[in-house]
Design goal:
Blueprint lengths: L2 E5 L5 E3 L5 E3 L4 H13 L3 E6 L14 H4 L1 H14 L7 E2 L10 E4 L4 H4 L5 H13 L3 E4 L21 E2 L4 H7 L9 H8 L2 E2 L9 E4 L2 E4 L5 H11 L1
């Protein structure tokens, strides 16, 4: 049995370019699909957040239109209710990467607010990358990679990866409201950004870095991680 660390946003809002606080958190499907896959396979889950705060679900991710109708909402809600780890996160500041066999970062707009500038997450990512520990990062969560360039060039420069695209951000209605766009920042970081069709499952694997573009990519990303676990 492997031990998998879920590194999750502690933010409950995303600050837009005009200073408006957009309510957000983590995207439900990006937590529940991998959580269900990993636990079904018998693996252990630990959740870490900045300060050990209980993570906030983005209520937009529980809407029938994006969650697969009433049955989809019911399925997602059942998994969230069963995931007791959500109510008992550890402090990200105290995490040791070598205690885990893999790291997984679910998205939602929350990581754009906190993990994008969090030095503890950056150290964790850098240590896991150097040690060859599988890193699964989906949708907006690759924003956490930006913090690894705080003191210079990021060790993720040159890695092939994907993340929520500018096209998807525009279709979601936030591209003209955001202070910055994730795709643009990842390219500026030096990443070899790859984009698939909007909203379709798309993952990229480069060495021990596994990335998914959008919510629909979370289940395929979990399946890819299970293959190496």
């Amino acid at each position: 049995m492997a031990e998998i660390l879920f590194v999750m946003t502690g933010a409950d809002h995303w600050t837009l370019a005009d200073g408006t606080r957009h309510p957000t958190g983590y995207w439900a499907e990006e937590f529940t699909a991998p959580y269900a896959a990993f636990t079904r396979a018998g693996h252990g889950i630990t959740i870490a957040t900045p300060g050990g705060v209980v993570p906030t679900v983005d209520h937009g991710s529980l809407a029938e239109a994006v969650a697969g109708g009433p049955d989809g909402v019911r399925h997602i809600t059942e998994i969230l209710d069963s995931a007791g780890e959500l109510n008992n996160p550890v402090r990200l500041e105290d995490v040791q990467p070598h205690d885990y066999n893999a790291l997984y970062y679910p998205g939602g707009h929350g990581p754009m607010e906190d993990l994008a500038v969090n030095p503890d997450s950056a150290k964790l990512l850098e240590s896991a990358l150097a040690a060859g520990i599988p890193l699964g990062i989906v949708c907006h969560a690759p924003a956490a990679l930006l913090a690894t360039a705080a003191d210079g060039e990021s060790p993720f420069a040159g890695y092939r990866l994907t993340a929520f695209s500018n096209v998807e951000e525009a279709q979601a209605g936030f591209a003209d409201k955001a202070e910055w766009l994730l795709q643009d920042r990842l390219i500026a970081l030096g990443a070899d950004y790859r984009e698939g069709p909007a909203w379709a499952p798309h993952i990229e694997i480069d060495r021990n870095v596994y990335t998914g573009q959008n919510p629909a990519s979370s289940a395929p990303l979990a399946a890819a991680l299970l293959e190496v676990l």
